[in-house]
Amino acid sequence: MNKIEHIGIAVKNLEDSNKLFASLFGEAHYKTEEVASEGVKTSFFKTGANKIELLQATNSESPIAKFINKKGEGIHHIAFVVDDILSEIKRLQNEGFTVLNEVPKKGADNKLVAFLHPKTTNGVLIELCQEIKEN
Fold first, then answer.
1. Which residues contact 17 (CB under 8 A, 6 or more apart)?
2. Measured between alpha carbons, how far is 22 from 28 in angstroms, rounded to an integer?
3. Are strands 4-10 and 50-57 parallel, antiparallel or unpaired?
4. Less Cβ around it within 10 Å: N or C end of the chain?
5. Cα(101)–Cα(71) distance, rounded to whole angstroms?
6. What is the reported pLDDT for 102?
7. pLDDT tens digits, residue range 72-100?
8. Sheet architecture: strand order including 40-47
9. What ranges make up the beta strands (E) of the chain?
């Protein structure tokens, strides 16, 4: 894992949260995107070298909807940049971590993603992110 790619924050209302975080950071979000396969709409902010991803559920079965129902709004995950997501998944499985996506899937912001189960990471949902290379 090279560096933190972003911190994901679950929110009930993306529009209201965009306004709040724009006030906090002093500038508007730079991108919104829907990931239909995950039932989520995202918004990205940059603050210095860091990125924050706001996540709003688009349906009641979305992992974000379930998270908010259980824990309320707040930090949902920490994402890390990896160079080779497939080898990193294997390495982490060999170390005893439970990988929720053995086959990476397309996530937001042009990334391949996979998640580690929080039960094996002291309660923190960890996301692995690899930039999708355009051919």
1. 9, 11, 43, 54, 56
2. 5
3. parallel
4. C
5. 23
6. 87
7. 999 999 999 999 999 999 999 999 999 99
8. 31-35, 40-47, 50-57, 4-10, 74-81, 126-131, 111-116, 105-107
9. 4-10, 31-35, 40-47, 50-57, 74-81, 105-107, 111-116, 126-131
3-class SS at 111? strand
Query: Could you tell me which residues are beta bridge partners of residue 79?
Result: 6, 127
Cα 76 from chain centroid? 8
pTM over 0.90: yes
**Rg, C-alpha atoms of the chain:** 15
For 34-50, how does the pLDDT look when each residue is reduced to its tens digit (9 = 90+)?
A: 999 899 999 999 998 89
Contact 41, 116 (CB under 8 A): no
Tokens of residue 88, six digits? 């990193």
